[in-house]
């Protein structure tokens, strides 16, 4: 086998199992990556064929080995799928992520904000019928409590759009 087998237990719970060390780089076989990423081995194969992920290297027996960065990328793919992104949209997002560290950081933050806003929108839609069923005074009181936070969010977005780079 290329490298040394060790048992790695990460505190954040993403993985517990055998990995292969190649220098200081931790490499996962396909089954280990699938388990750590909570997907099937077929999904790993499919994402590899689509170019969403790629192996870091191959063993002498031609087994694919994936890096820890691939595991993080797989988590990002799963997060985007949860938000109903298509695989093509995910590919475009990952391409932006791969473009460079600055673009990656900004793209990552914007994607997070977009996902968070979508979640908030869903929650507001869920609350709408409840607000309509409340007495007008109760609903008004609740909405007035939310107004400062909502205004602050809108102002932050406005400032970002005004001061950010031209698109």
Automatic annotation (TrEMBL):
Gene3D superfamilies per UniProt: 1.10.1660.10
Domain spans labelled HTH merR-type: 27-96
Listed SMART domains: HTH_MERR
InterPro entries associated with the record: DNA-bd_dom_put_sf, MerR-type_HTH_dom, MerR_fam
Keywords from the UniProt entry: DNA-binding, Repressor, Transcription, Transcription regulation
Transcription in keyword set: yes
Protein name according to UniProt: MerR family transcriptional regulator
């Amino acid at each position: 086998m290329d490298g040394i087998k060790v048992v790695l237990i990460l505190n954040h719970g993403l993985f517990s199992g055998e990995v292969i060390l190649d220098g200081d780089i931790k490499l996962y076989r396909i089954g280990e990556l699938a388990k750590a990423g909570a997907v099937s081995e077929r999904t790993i194969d499919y994402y590899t064929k689509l170019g969403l992920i790629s192996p870091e290297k191959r063993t002498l027996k031609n087994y694919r080995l994936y890096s820890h960065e691939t595991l993080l990328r797989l988590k990002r793919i799963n997060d985007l799928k949860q938000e109903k992104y298509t695989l093509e949209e995910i590919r475009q997002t990952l391409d932006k992520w791969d473009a460079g560290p600055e673009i990656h950081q900004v793209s990552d933050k914007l994607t997070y904000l977009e996902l968070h806003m979508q979640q908030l929108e869903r929650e507001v839609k869920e609350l709408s019928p409840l607000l309509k069923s409340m007495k007008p005074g109760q609903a008004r009181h609740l909405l007035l409590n939310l107004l400062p936070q909502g205004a602050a969010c809108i102002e932050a977005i406005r400032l970002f759009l005004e001061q950010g780079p031209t698109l």
